[in-house]
Design goal:
globular; 8 helices; 145 residues; single chain; 0% strand; mainly alpha
């Protein structure tokens, strides 16, 4: 990444940049350059078999136009753990409470960020960004998956 370029703050922008690189090697380098807690978290949700979110598959009904267009899923990093199957907080919430909380998160972020979160939850990032796969993640960011 050019030192004068600002690193994107939205995860979908990062994934788009990685996807646009011309080959595997360039995409792996771009992923390494863009590495941050939020990108790592999304990749782990999508690719780690031991990370399971206790949420129903697919996109719930939510209002796509409510979120701040500049709001990243970064603001959700403190609550994502609550959706993990074995989290103590998850065990204290019933399914309706979890779904309401998930919908409130989706409605608070950029619409494309919400899409990233839903795709990662369902382990379908590769449907939207086919050039990004588990092998690339392992090569670019060793140890996260």
């Amino acid at each position: 990444m050019n030192p004068t370029q600002q690193k994107p703050s939205l995860i979908f922008e990062m994934l788009d940049l990685i996807q646009r690189e011309p080959n595997y090697q360039a995409r792996a380098i771009k992923m390494r350059q863009l590495r941050c807690l939020e990108l790592n978290t999304v990749l782990q949700i999508n690719y780690r078999s031991d990370v399971k979110l206790d949420l129903p598959p697919g996109a719930p009904n939510f209002k796509c136009d409510n979120g701040d267009p500049n709001m990243s899923i970064a603001r959700t990093r403190n609550v994502i753990h609550e959706f993990l199957e074995l989290s103590p907080n998850n065990l204290q919430m019933n399914q309706a409470q979890k779904l309401r909380k998930f919908i409130s998160i989706l409605e608070s972020v950029n619409e494309r960020e919400a899409e990233v979160f839903i795709l990662a939850k369902d382990r379908k990032l590769q449907d939207k960004w086919p050039a990004i796969n588990i092998h690339m993640v392992r090569d670019a960011i060793p140890g996260i998956v």
